[in-house]
Write the structure tokens for this entry.
Amino acid sequence: MNEPNPQAILDAVLARCHEIRTPCGDGHLVWRVWGEATPERPALVLLHGGFGAWNHWVRTIPSLEPHYRVIVPDLPGCGDSADAPSPYDAASLAALLSDGLDVLVTDDAPFDLVSFSFGGVLSGLIAHAQARRINTLTIVGTPVLGLPTTGPANELVKVPPDLTPQEAAPLYRGNLQKLMVRDPAAVDDLAMTLHMANMAKTRLRSRSIARAFVLADSLRELPCRLGCIFGAGDVTLHPDLAAIRAYVEEIHPSAAFHVIPDAGHWVQYEASEAFNAVLLETLAGGTKNARSTGN
């Protein structure tokens, strides 16, 4: 049996959404929305990672659609969204997203926020700005204590802009295998299709922001319930997963903290079935102080 065409998979998910645009610099943030707002389908916002777009969640959105009105922006300077005004920092990027949420989720309706990687760096600031109505914040694969300056996350190969897609593909594949997944085989045709499309569009420079302690600081006095989901083999964590767990337990003793075995940084893609189940449990309240690990 032939494998589904990667672009067809992406197009099928996109066909079920509609777009809303909010101000961003000289243009707009592009938000994609699956489902209508009803009491039975509360708003759930997903933030993608650096050098990404809405499609970082392509294997998550279908599992959430029956339960939530799913709202996914392309971050400023990523995907189809315009660049943020320069100079930008975590606070100004978070403000653009928070202002957009006031348009997308009206009448002070409550919402849940799930953020991946660089999106997580911004999410604590957004939670404080939306303190009056945010229900929960779940961070996924975000280096809470700052992106390290050494290790595999810093050993990516630069892809020259003048290469053809065929020449660039092996370099992009190697970078994905090194940074995003634990099992190199997880970098399949769908992962390559969306990653190469994202890299062609990304202008946001996020790494210097990700190296700071923005999230660690903003998680203190958080105005909502916190959950954390990590892949056991995530190479972006610093100083290590145990230190992040200890920090979260110190400031949020009741936070759910899940570690999914045999998965890397892009845990919601590589281990989508396990991740989707854990995410739904976490959003629903789950078991306080949940702990699972493959280490």
